[in-house]
Design goal:
The chain is an alpha/beta fold. 37% of the residues lie in helices and 22% in strands.
Length: 301
Amino acid sequence: MLPPFNLARNITLLGSELFNLYLVKGETCAIIEGGVSGITYPFLDQLSQLNVPPETISYLVILHSHFDHMMVFPTLKEKYPWVKIVTSALNRTTFSSERILAKIFDSDRKITLALMERGLISQAPALHPNTSFPLDISVEEGSILDLGKGVKIKFIETPGHSPDGLSAYLDGTLFCSDSSGFYTPPDFFRPNYWFRLDEAEKSIDKMKTIDPEILCRGHYGAMVGREVVRKHLQMGHQCIEDFKAFVLERMNRGDSVEKIAQEVTVRFSKGFLELFPAEENYRLWKLLIQRTLEHFGILTL
């Protein structure tokens, strides 16, 4: 686990290198991003180190509904029933679907077991799929979450990676979750537009317009410094352009979607992605290729 790191006067980076959570303090506190269940106990230890009383935590913010950004929250909700889960209004359907929740909980279990097998954690809460995941406060473009003492978090819709993608902005800091692309230090970048390529590009352009001083991701920490953030967002945009060109070149050469997916699965499943089963990485890469072809109006069987 990472030691707590203060990014700004009222923002602290918590969690691990692979799964980041952010504590935002006002009169009351919000936790932005929810990681996987495997980092729940270390995260609670971090809050204890910071002497954060549980009763000061009022909000748990989910910026998109992928399992690796929300699964610390079931335990926190159980321990601290007064906290409110804040996320996109689109997730009211997602969180009421027993089938989708079962898949979310199953994916979390697989990654948590992988963390244990690698010795990265020693224990994790035993979660059981619920029939619903509470959505207490729904937000959309322009919504404000007021923590008091002048701390107001503004929400910005940044879909592309997912349909419900949100970013959150506070005093020069932008919490972008996975909306800027997938980055692994020191220099690996890949696109991650599981939903729509064009929306992903628009979202990165929107983040460029905001021009934040600090960019807080869901994995591998935060980028600090306006020029560093600008470069990071440009890399996120460029990797989309590069992947589009790569897929078109391979299709024009006569390669099948399956052959391209097999190649990129081997070449690009690095860092955090190594925790995923090979078949899951293959499925995700194949989906990315299909989304690329859809963008160009190319249909495949």
